Amino acid sequence: MKLQRELDVATSLHAEAARPRAASTGETWLATLDHARLARANAAAIGLALVAGVVLAVGIGLAPLAGGGTDAGVLRQLYSMHGAVMMFLVALPAVPAVLGNAWLPAALGVERMAWPRLNLLAFHLQLAAALIFACATLLAPLDTGWSLDVPFATLANTRVAGGVLAIVAACLAGACSSANVLATLAASRSRERGWSELPFFAWALGASALVQLVAAPVLVVLACLLLAQRAGASDLFSATSAASDTAFASWFWTWGHAAIVALLLAALGALTELVERATAWRKPCEPAVVLALVLLVALAAAGSGIHLAGRATDPAASVGASALALLGVLPVAVVARAWWTRLAAAHATRSTELWFAFAGGVLVCTGVMAGLVVALLPTGAYLQSTAFAGAQLHFLFVGGTLLAFVGGLYALWPRWFGVTPASLRGPLSAFLALAGALLAFAPRCVLGYLGQPQREHALVAGGSTWNALAVAGSVVFVAALLLAGWDLLAAVLHARAADEMEASS
Amino acid sequence: MSACVALAGGPLLPQASSFAADVDRSFLLGTWCAVFVVVFVAGALLIAALAPRDAEAAAGAPRRWLGKLGALACVVLLAAFFVQGSRVWADMTVVPRGAFPIQVAVGDAGWTFTYPNGYVARELHVPLDQPVKLALRGFREPYSFAVPAFRLQVPVGVATDRSAWFEATLAGEWEARSWPRPAATTAELAATVVVHPAGGFEKWYQDVSGPPLDLPPIELGQRSYQMRGCTQCHSTDGAKGVGPSFAGFFTREHKLRGGTSVTPSEAYIRESLLDPQAKVVEGFEPVMPSFNGRLHELEIKGLAAYLESLK
After folding, report:
1. Secondary structure tally for chain A: helices H, strands E
2. Local confidence band at B159 (pLDDT 50, 70, 90 cut-offs)
3. Chain A residues lying within 8 Å of B73, measured CB to CB
């Protein structure tokens, strides 16, 4: 068995070495079993989805300028597609499919991911999800919110089928990635390297994969039931009865709650890995930090349990949910301290990826602290489904997942293209992204407090100044992303041009 | 703390209910904590990343007790937050005895507020400094009833009824909105909450209460005629006012604008009350306001009977 594995590794290494450079056609990229290549292929797909998601967000911002009386239906489509693309095509795959594939085998000291074919299947499913989303955007854009809000999802006059199919594909892709991560972790354990030897990234990615894998079937089954309902084959979630209506939301948030914690875990892992790379920290993860990750998994399970039991609106259960959500601050504090320990213990290389990790870390802390305001019962009851709640999620996932992804690209660029983007554009874009995100989402928290509902353009009284600030912040943030993208692409093009010059001379 | 409220919470939103100040306190506490933690974390990470250090200094003993102290402080702070929050929230959720009950319902045309006397209003009229209990009726789509000035948001599911309470502490008019807006509704679902100054609500309620409904029909109609403001335009002695006199109203046919005529009946009276412009008597302007939703069924019957009794 072990011999076989070594043989596999040897052949795959051989294949890697023997692969001629000229053969990097579409076919080799679409059918590769090599995890490093899959990381690059996934990064390309996610990069495109990110551009689409940002364009949709800009569309939301520009919609009121396009005409005074903006169509509520069009706005709902823009909000839904932006949310769904960012959630299912960017946030969920970004860390496991790109950074996981690129870093996990090395972090575990193994040659490759455990199940290469499953890895490829995950990529294909992700591509399928992207294609279905693209077709759905052209034909029948999702208009129910990314979270398939009831009653929109169960009413007959919304268009949900395309979006739901894509969500199922993306969710299955996530499950495949997660299974692969867990299998790789399990396979990597040997007599020499036990659990206690694993670095933070492996723990965090494993915890995230576990939560995602357990939760994924809930969403897949729910989506199938919803499609059956829309096709007229079942009447499980008819919008007329109270029980079925809350049932749909309960089931969705059983998955949603777990998925959000899984995203947070993966983001924490990626940010920590970036810090460790900048500081050349080569130590296994501290037990206290592992305990913090385990606590987050336990909180995810408990929070999902409350939704599963359909008690999310129950007064007694909301006291428990509040306690759980407040407890969630502790593990993040432990991880933030771990960042500090790593930075303080060794001299940090002040690379662009470190500044992206810094920006992401500060935004995750902001998101968690904003979550504390939502977790407090009096403010939580008042702020739910306001702009505050939306801004809080943006802090977490723009900060955690998106900036970790961009930082990860900076860290991977030398290996992928043999160049290190070393201009000042990189650090500048990291700090602009931090400033832009804070400026974009903090005023939206204030808008929520003023009574501004989520996904609603008509502003509350006294909201226009705050809204103007938020728009300015969004502009800065998008500019920061464009700057980083330009920096990365310019480095590659510059290196290519230099290569050609060398070849011709 | 009150200075903080004045500084950051005061100008943003009026604190118009008894628990608005408590919600603001939680909000500000959380917000300032967040600002402190974020600045602290950002500063600590920046200093750690930028400070030049040699390997020997870094190898020094980590201050473990500091981490434990920090964790303990975190737990204590979170527990304090939880206890404070739960206490305020218990106050917000338990409806006090003797609260004035009002039924809230939402439909395609907007909000309706039904009072104990059966009066249906389009605006929510409430007394000052007196607890009010809202019984919110489920709709075919979920909605939230929110009054930002009261820091009140009540989510109502499909076909499920919820209740909530508040005590207004500032007289004036406040905005209430539906949150999120029901899907099938295109009308702007905002409503006004009118908090009457001391004594004002009792007067308003008296005005809309109308006569006791257990009176005999003619007597009930007479009381309605007197209390509902009919006397301003319609006399009972034959004198011509803004509207036709009710003296002998049922004894003759009335010529209408547009050339037709009508024989008085209960159905005609009902139509004139609910849709006054449908049939306007010749020689008069179509200026009568609709009483749709403002009269009890028995009052309409009573008014018809009373008019018939006037010879």
Report:
1. 19, 0
2. low
3. none
d(CA A455, CA A60): 10
ω before B62 within 30° of 0 (cis)?
A: no
DSSP structure class, residue A349: P
Residues of A in contact with B81 (CB under 8 A): 326, 372, 376
Cross-strand partners of B101: B133
Residue from the list B70, B152, B183 with its beta carbon closest to the beta carbon of A155: B183
Distances (CA, A) of B302 to A4, A400, B215, B218, B223: 97, 69, 9, 5, 9
Among A239, A333, A451, select the one facing B148 at the smallest CB separation: A451
Model confidence pLDDT, tens digit, residues B179-214: 665 554 444 577 889 999 988 898 888 877 777 788
A370 at interface of B, judged by CB pairs closer than 8 A: yes
Q: What is the pLDDT of residues A158-185, one digit of tens each?
A: 677 888 899 999 999 999 999 999 999 9
DSSP letters along A459-498, please? PPTT-HHHHHHHHHHHHHHHHHHHHHHHHHHHHHHHHHHH
Give A449's pLDDT tier (boundaries 50, 70, 90). very high
Q: For B23, which of A327, A341, A379 is closest by C-beta distance?
A: A379
Structure confidence at residue A19 (pLDDT): 42
CB < 8 Å to B55, chain A: 346-347
The DSSP annotation for A111-142 comes to: SS-S-HHHHHHHHHHHHHHHHHHHHHHHHS--
Is A316 part of the contact surface with chain B (CB cutoff 8 Å)?
A: no
Q: How many CB pairs under 8 A join A and B?
A: 187
Give the model confidence (pLDDT) of A231-280 as tens digits: 777 777 765 555 666 778 888 889 999 999 999 999 999 999 999 999 88
| Among the listed residues B64, B59, B40, the one whose alpha carbon sits nearest the alpha carbon of residue A287 | B64
Return the closest-CA partner of residue B208 out of B98, B296, B297, B306.
Answer: B296
A264 touches A396 (CB < 8 A) = yes
For residues B158 and B142, give the distance between their C-alpha atoms in angstroms, rounded to a whole number: 5
- Provide the β-strand partners of residue B254: B262
B248-281 pLDDT per residue, tens: 888 888 899 888 889 899 999 999 998 888 889 9
CB contact under 8 A, B85 and A453: no
How many Cα neighbours within 13 Å face the side chain of A483?
A: 19
A residues 266-285 lying closer than 8 A (beta carbon) to B: 278
A66 inside 8 A of chain B by CB: no
ipTM: 0.87
Beta strands in B179-274 (DSSP E): 190-195, 254-255, 261-262
